[in-house]
Amino acid sequence: ARQYGERIEFYDFRWGIDSRIDRNKSISICIEAALSSNYFIGLLGDRYGWIPDEDLLKKELGVHFTKGLTGKSITALEIEFGSLRDLSKPCLFYFRYPSQTNFVEKDKQLKNEELKKNIHAKRGKDCKSYSFLGGANKKFDDETIISDIKKLLLDSHDWGQQQSEPVDDYQAELNILDAFCNRCSEDFCGREKILD
Predict the structure, then answer these.
(1) pLDDT per residue over 116-125, tens digit each?
(2) Would you tell me which of 1, 13, 41, 190 could form a disulfide with 6, CB atoms 3.0–4.6 Å apart?
(3) Whole-angstrom distance, CA of residue 193 vs CA of residue 30
């Protein structure tokens, strides 16, 4: 990503939020990360995730709250805000099959399958399936994801001919600086008094 003027920060909430942060703030932290990202990559296995109650959702989501969000897991909410509400946002999804659901509650298993169907219906071209059977199956590995991310970066920008290939370290730093300045200036609203 750096070679192409982008910076990638990975948010991995599988293990939860930092224990020093109030658990009740985890919803707003996760949703804010999903909303502020330029890309969304989701890996979904068998677990549906923690389902916060409606009162907590109202409190944490504020203006983003709607009745349709009640009963959804925090994982489903991250996906909703991170990719399904903005179908122009570049994203990738990886679904693990065959499912190994002998340890998952039946109602959550059904919700998880429904979530996968919903994602596939809205983002089908962005979805891939993989199987992981004790590490013996080589159909899916880190190189697959890295290759997909490179393609996602290249496809989501108008790089021009000369930018479609990696550049030297100096040019990469200039690309990062340029991308940073563009990101910062998008939301800039100067005060006339100060600008004059």
Answers:
(1) 999 999 999 9
(2) 1
(3) 37
